[in-house]
Amino acid sequence: MKRKLDANDVPSPEAAGGDEQDPDFESLGLDPRLRQALIQEKFTKPTLVQAKAIPLALEGKDILARAKTGSGKTAAYVLPILQAILQHKSVDPYLKATTGLILVPTRELAEQVQKVVTSFSSFCGKDIRSVNLTQKVSDAVQRSMLADFPDLIVSTPTRVLANVNNSALSLEKLTHLVIDEADLVLSYGYDEDINALSKAIPRGVQTFLMSATLTSEVDTLKSLFCRSPVVLKLEDKEEKGAGVSQFVVRCAEDEKFLLTYVIFKLQLIKGKVIIFVGDVDRCYRVKLFLEQFGLKSCVLNSELPINSRLHVVQEFNKGVYDIIIAADDQEVMGAPKSSKKAHEDEEAEKKEEMGSSEDEDADDQIGKQKALQSKRRRKMTSKEKDYGISRGIDFQNVACVVNFDLPTTSKSYTHRIGRTGRAGRAGMALSFVVPADQYGKHKPTSVPSAKHDEAVLAKIVKRQAKLGHEVKPYHFEMQQVDAFRYRMTDALRSVTRLAVQEARAREIRQELIKSEKLKRHFEDNPDELRQLRHDGELRAARVQPHLKHVPDYLMPAKGRKGISKEDVGYVGFSKTHENRIRKARDRNRGRGKPRKPTAGKVDPLKTFNRSRK
């Protein structure tokens, strides 16, 4: 009896009749050393992309896989490559050649992939040697690292090509090639490097293209490197973002700050939060605003040194910080669009909406990709080329994503909210939208991108509807919230443009110093990374101590529930209750001590002396 096959030529669960058990790593036939590393890293069962891609990769087939960031794509290609290297070493123990190459668009992603390679090869001894070429070291040091012929290299295309051109790296014996985040590599400005590498890489190399979407750029890479690849279009319940509740708040420009203050000061959101803003200046404006109320946060943008950015992400994932304010410089370049480019992007969005409903990712439109690609080629600096927030970086246990400034495209929105609601957890996305009649009414808090918020929101709603998700309105009881408005106005008055500029310069100076300390600290203590904090107060704006406390008379009669009608009800990942032991200790500290005699009450009228002339 034949089983019914799905789109990937894999027997469907229904056709299997429920007799087959869920696949596990034991059944994949991996080397015992790799299985031991998987047990150490607490990998119990493969994810959907791992279960489908690893067997095909072990058979030697080229793979083009579409799966969301965080779905396990890294392990899906790292494990087969390590398995192949170990098999080669078992035949020729003295083999010295670079056989694996992993190309990624950003340094942060290269660091993450290198950590996965290191953890999975931890029981392989000296049989597997890997090098991350994106580290900031001198050319002489990098040449010495490559002189020993590492088995596996992780890098951006530019660094690989530079070392190939100066003969420090040879790709003649390459057997495996991976291009991760394939839909971003060309649009990040690596098109010339990729074309040059396609000529240097030998024919017949097994190729893995991993991407969150299937676009025209992925098709270009497919034609350059692949030989009839197996296409995996994977979307399980978790990857579709089924665990993310999406809400939209329509508010004026200054009310974004008011609602942000109310949300965090009254702890309406519990757990770790990413606040997405439009540009770098906006990062520091929001951070300085929150400082007025004693709320700590750290920033993440392309201006910060790479060591600091990596450390911020690591500490956020460990739970050291609860709030990150992120400027996604890949989608907002920090400058208003020209009318011509705005027209190009508008035309691209129209092409997106005219796409086929049969394949949602075909909606990621050729026109938009070409327009954005030409824009990025002209404007992107080398620093921006190595950076991206909404894609690539693996944030863990994010309870909520706040779109303080709405992204410029529906695709960017999808990637942003993908930071939460992962690994089976519930998550929430809250977006502020400025109505057209409210745009430009409050100049100090206005941003050019907000002018098109309603048009972008319409595209977002349409795109999410295709995925079966609903974007719901979130209603605040503004009569209750208005009680806090004068405090918001008082705080914003202190966050001047000059204060933002000073904070931006001070943060860069501090992080440059920390970056050098981090570099030495990583070398000496790779497992002890908690001595440097990135969420300290900048003190660039005049801080008013009275704003840190919320007086009882401002609280609504129903408490925090009186602020909003909805009861979101998601559970935070951090403790929010007071320390019971510390509270009791403070209460009992004065007990058992003799009281000092206090003087009698003094009548100020009786002690008033009038001097006589």
From TrEMBL:
Task performed by this protein: ATP-binding RNA helicase involved in the biogenesis of 60S ribosomal subunits and is required for the normal formation of 25S and 5.8S rRNAs.
Recorded GO CC terms: cytosol; nucleus
Catalytic reactions of this protein: ATP + H2O = ADP + phosphate + H(+)
Gene Ontology MF term list: ATP binding; hydrolase activity; RNA binding; RNA helicase activity
Protein name: RNA helicase
Chain segments carrying region Disordered: 1-27, 335-385, 574-613
Biased composition (Basic and acidic residues): 341-354
Segments carrying motif Q motif: 23-51
Family: Belongs to the DEAD box helicase family. DDX56/DBP9 subfamily.
